[in-house]
Specification:
Blueprint (H helix, E strand, L loop, with lengths): L2 H5 L7 H8 L22 E2 L5 E4 L2 E4 L1 H8 L5 E2 L3 H8 L4 E7 L3 H21 L5 E7 L2 E6 L2 H15 L2 E6 L6 E7 L1
Parallel strand pairs: 1-4, 5-9
Antiparallel strand pairs: 1-2, 2-3, 5-7, 6-7, 8-9
Helix pairs in contact: 5-6
């Protein structure tokens, strides 16, 4: 550092830097951390919790293929992105379904929700229901992806009508879905 550069007046931060600092995002100050790559697995891997597998840099869910890969000696055992999100409690969606439930209605709705999770998981193994609680007249659901929360809300609305509100949070990867039926 030269003497001239020390005495030079400091430039004010740019507008996007001010906005980022107010939101607590300091990546503009530390650009080296911005491009940290994920850990590369040298070969196929399996997740022992959910039985998904990694081949060709993409996680898939197939029980038959998992059983084939499980017996191979060169397989790495690790947590898939969906299981690690659940373990770290990184949720991106919240669904609250409100209705005067009878026992039959609630079981049908739970079946619909689990079926929608299975459909979403077949294309994206990261899409999971992390938490489901029965709170009397409310069903409270946390999902690992915001798109799964929106899909569950849309399926409930399509099957049972009612009122649906999908509220993605501004500047966040999180969606709140409210479904009510009187």
């Amino acid at each position: 550092m030269t003497f001239a550069s020390r005495n030079r007046p400091r430039k004010p931060p740019l507008e996007y830097q001010n906005r980022a600092a107010m939101q607590g995002d300091l990546t503009w100050r530390f650009p080296d951390n911005q491009f940290v790559t994920r850990e590369e697995v040298p070969g196929p891997a399996i997740c022992s919790r959910c039985h998904s597998y990694l081949e060709t840099d993409h996680w898939r869910y197939d029980e038959h293929r998992y059983l084939q890969l499980k017996d191979r000696p060169d397989i790495h055992v690790m947590l898939c992105p969906g299981c690690s999100r659940i373990e770290k409690r990184l949720y991106e969606g919240e669904v609250i379904a409100h209705h005067d439930w009878s026992a039959v209605d609630k079981q049908e709705v739970l079946n619909l929700i689990h079926h929608e999770e299975a459909r979403a998981r077949s294309t994206n193994p990261t899409a999971r229901i992390a938490l489901m609680e029965d709170r009397g007249d409310d069903l409270y659901i946390l999902t690992t992806t915001q798109f799964l929360a929106e899909r569950i809300g849309k399926e409930l609305h399509k099957a049972y009508r009612g009122t649906l509100k999908v509220m993605p949070l501004p500047r966040e990867k999180f969606s709140r879905v409210r479904w009510t039926r009187e």
